[in-house]
Structure prediction request, 161 residues.
Amino acid sequence: MKFDVRQPFDAAPEEVIACYSSQAMYEQLPEFGRISRPEMLGRTEHGDRVVLRLRYKFTADLPAAALAIIDPDRLTWVEETTYDLSTLTSRTKLLPDHYASKLEASASARFTESSEGSIRNVGGDLRVRVLLVGSQVERAIIDGLKEHLAEEAKLVATLLG
Prediction:
């Protein structure tokens, strides 16, 4: 299932991507919605490239049929994002700690100028391979991701304000 999110900011794209690629931003991120507070696993910088590795846990309820196949306590993953500060882009992979054969997800973002500051456009694809309930689980996870991205954007706006 594909998803797209458009997020406006009142700051230059360089400032926005710098905030997203900082460790400090994620340390201030609270737990909210359907996804846990991130656990920082690492941040490395090589020239204009920054790689962040964060661990998350899905915390929302799943459809009853999914619970027969999926243990909600094992819905954890590492989010590995590579930020390219020179091209104002990022690429993200979700690496499941469990159920790797059942979940595949990736996203990319582009930070561009706008008349009011900048726009972060995020597009991704998420696939859950579970018979009969896969699409329901995909919708639940994507709804959680969208809520999470919205909360991240609020924190970034506050930090840059």
